[in-house]
Amino acid sequence: MVMLDVLIIGGGVVGCTTARMLAGYQLKTALLEKASDICEGQSKANTAIVHGGYDAKPGTMKAKYNVMGNGMFQKMCSELDVPLKWNTSLVVAFSEDGIPKLEELKHQGERNGVPNLSVIGREELRKREPNISPAACAALLVETGGIVCPYELTVANAENAAENGVRFYRNAPVTGIQKGEDCWIVQSGAGTFSAKAVVNCAGLYSDEINNMVSEDKIRILPRRGEYYILDKKYADVFHASVFQLPTKMGKGILVTPTVDGTILIGPTAEDLDVRDDTRTTSEGLAKAIRFGSLTWEHIPMRDVITTFSGIRAHCDRDDFVLGEAPDAPMFFNAAGVESPGLTSSPAIGRYLAELIAEKLHAKGNPNYNPIRKGIPKFREMTNEERARAIASNPDYAKVVCRCETVTEAEIREAIRRPVGARTVDGIKRRTRAGMGRCQAGFCTPRTVEILSEELHISPLEVTKFGGNSKLLSGNLFEKGDGAE
Amino acid sequence: MRTVDILIVGGGPAGLAAAVSAYESGCRSILILEREEALGGILKQCIHNGFGLHTFHEELTGPEYAQKYIDKVVEYQIPYQCCTMVLDITEERVVTAVSNVNGLQQFQAKSVILAMGCRERPRGALAIPGWRCSGIYTAGTAQKFVNLEGIMPGKKVMILGSGDIGLIMARRMTFMGAKVLACVELLPYSSGLKRNIVQCLDDYGIPLLLNHTVVDISGRERLEGVTVAEVDPETKQPIPGTETYYECDTLLLSVGLIPENELSKLAGVKISSATGGAEVDENLETSVPGIFSCGNVLHVHDLVDFVSQEAEKAGKKAFQFVQGQLAENGARIPVTGGFGVAGAVPQVLHAGSGGSPVTLMFRPKGVYRNAKISVSAEGTELYSRKYRILTPGEMVSLELGPDLLSRAAGAKELTVKVEA
Amino acid sequence: MRKEITCIGCPMGCRMTAEVEDGKILSVEGYSCNVGKKYAQEELTVPKRMVTSLVHVRGSSRPLPVRTSAPIEKSKIFDCLREIRACEITPPVKIGDVIISRVCGTQADIVATREVF
């Protein structure tokens, strides 16, 4: 049995930011993730927006942590070397009768403490977004809206936490939690752990984890959103993240640039019975385009590079459930964290870490280093930097992913880093290899080969995302005669 | 910065033929940059036969066809660098490339020939609903695994799209012990060659389901099956009630090829929305002087023989440009595709292009029987030819002679169209 | 016996029907040119195909592509593939090198289509 001070359940963005915050204290901390990699749940499939905070109802946890988290993003992203862009958000009204509603939203945002909100008219809107549909007549301008890469952020938090001593266990689903003497006993796919404090960051399964120990039951109502990603050639079509003013027809569809230069359109909202049903549907995809076209009249469908869906962990309490469970001392929840969960994550992580450190009388970790350097990105280097990178590591000269210009050096480093990639999708999220317009058509064979070399496994054992998601079925010729 | 007369981006069939022809035209300063480990491009993995009937009058496999050109490159001692990825091309023809042997290099080229080929449309672009599991490959990726690495991607295979690579892979997977269930095609006809339909599907009893598509993908981790439905030939929408589930562990996609023009765009080359390739004139020169384009990066060809022919012309013309002998003669006449014409190449002719004939190529947009193709200038027909059949799978190539071009001299526009 | 075949001479893909008895063609219908007629005759008597496949290279995970030197009888394709699969080569190999001579008792050899050093 592994003895810990703190055990975090769930390796999404909330679990990983919490892990990093806890690394700032003299605590023995570990994180359990049920999937084959961190960032395999809702943290990998969302809008990637750093929300201003106008949307949540005043007085809710969502409102509080959104605004607080937003304020922490700049520092966090610079410490972790994660690209962040303050591109602003716009909430657009498509008819004059929407304008009073924009004013209401503005007022709500101000009550939440969101700075610099203003309602802009047709002319100003068009000046900012020349490609917006002619029907757009006014918008709420949210100066503090931004975009970030959610996987890079999650991975960066995990790497930094690991470098500062947090242990990560993947393929480690939690199967039971019992109260021990001054501790919790947690059974998992990676063995049994005892921990003085347990933090529930289990996302879509945060109700199951909470309900294992607490009578204060909660329920997650999974809600699916479907998205499109369009080619980078449209990087400049929209500058802000363009939301639609919610109407009776629904919450509207977002059209936004991503920090990586693609365009994201989505999400739909559909309540599900099964919480991990990440299928896309023809109805959902059609709906995203139908509503997205309100913002961007002629969406160039031939430049769609992929579609995906993500499930939000909507809680029956309509808000985040944060803090110590009332009837389970030293069991802490970050449950029901859905949008604006990404934005709120640093604030949630800090709150929980401070709370736990105080209860455990933990001292600050004098060796804690908040700085993490990302994998140097060949595509972003100047030619001088490229020449230097190649001189120090010739693998930088081997471009594996042509569409995103990702080199073998980056892929190997993604595998070798703490909490490194073990799957093709893991490499994709850490380097963008395979995320471009050919969707891994060219680079898959080489990526599989590199994974097999680095992990000392057969190419036949390489998976897309763990489990049975194997890529290949067999060798044409049986080996055992001196073949590699 | 090294200087070179002709820099060729890509050492596949187009780049090789361009290099050989530039050399044979007299150019002695040529450099081929190839991103993969060896010359040959996609032909390296096309181990099936059927190449070279037009060029060499014998039936070769892809590697053999490529080798004929590689042998010439070696014989002529034309310099080439493999494992070399071009990162940037400027309008002034400064080419930046990177390789593990030579590091980061820059070249000032007097002329650049774009020969980067094309890529396959992936699943993502089709927005097929369902799970995002493993086991879904483009046909070319699967071909690379099998033919170059000796690894099978799966055992029970469904094929979506009946492009030639899909058909070829249906037979290859069958040969290598997999079970191929069917080839599913959205259109009422296949875009593949008839020969491939007969010899890759019919020979092995693999059904070709026309007017069908994959409407759902099952399998949380590895692919477990696909649902296929019939589509309305007009709207291409699935017809409810026609769904059939096929259990399979592999889905191969052969749903279209896209010229890879990201570098061309960096150089400021104008791209045609009809072909996805550069807009070129009769000399295969793009909108940027001194930059030429040929092969599948210009427009997706049906046969490699025609890629070679086109590339030979590009090599010759690029050398003429280097020598200052490629004067543009007379007014620019845009060529537009009318009814039934998808992406005519070249997009522009010069009125006084002189004594040499111009090759005009395009793909028919549909299947037309007993049809006529005409070229006209402001309503006056200059050329026409009858065809018993035109299909999107086979390119149409018209040779426009000097007399036709002289009659077109004063025209503001040439239109090529199908009259069905 | 009635047999149906599709001509591969051109994109027309004429559907032809033939009456065949004891390997003798009694009649062919549905072709629109001589290419079709000739193809039908070959295809109905002894249909032949080129076969391409891969051979295991000792000491390497990358296989060697090969082909038949001439078309072989269609009925022997899978026997031919089995024979190719059972064989192994040791480099070096040049294009055109005979890997298997007279495969499956036919007149055709299996030859290499790529160099291996």
UniProtKB/TrEMBL annotation, chain A:
InterPro entries: BFD-like_2Fe2S-bd_dom, BFD-like_2Fe2S-bd_dom_sf, FAD-dep_OxRdtase, FAD/NAD-bd_sf, G3P_Oxidase/Oxidoreductase. Residues 5-355 form the FAD dependent oxidoreductase domain. Coiled coil: none annotated. Its EC number is 1.1.3.15. Pfam families: DAO (PF01266), Fer2_BFD (PF04324). SUPFAM superfamilies: FAD-linked reductases, C-terminal domain, FAD/NAD(P)-binding domain. Keywords: Oxidoreductase. It is an enzyme of class 1 (oxidoreductase). Residues 399-453 form the BFD-like [2Fe-2S]-binding domain. One of its GO terms (molecular function) is (S)-2-hydroxy-acid oxidase activity. This is L-2-hydroxyglutarate oxidase LhgO. It comes from Caproicibacter fermentans.
TrEMBL record, chain B:
InterPro entries: FAD/NAD-bd_sf (IPR036188), FAD/NAD-binding_dom (IPR023753), Metab_Enz_Cyan_OpOx_G3PDH (IPR051691). Gene3D superfamilies: FAD/NAD(P)-binding domain. Keywords: Oxidoreductase. Pfam families: Pyr_redox_2. It is an enzyme of class 1 (oxidoreductase). GO terms for molecular function: ferredoxin-NADP+ reductase activity. This is Ferredoxin--NADP reductase. It comes from Caproicibacter fermentans.
Automatic annotation (TrEMBL), chain C:
Keywords: Iron, Iron-sulfur, Metal-binding. InterPro entries: CPE0013-like_sf, DUF1667, Mopterin_OxRdtase_4Fe-4S_dom. GO terms for molecular function: iron-sulfur cluster binding; metal ion binding; oxidoreductase activity. It comes from the Bacteria. It holds the Pfam family Molybdop_Fe4S4. Residues 6-31 form the 4Fe-4S Mo/W bis-MGD-type domain. The keyword Signal does not apply. PANTHER family: DUF1667 DOMAIN-CONTAINING PROTEIN, MOLYBDOPTERIN OXIDOREDUCTASE, 4FE-4S CLUSTER-BINDING SUBUNIT. This is DUF1667 domain-containing protein. It comes from Caproicibacter fermentans.
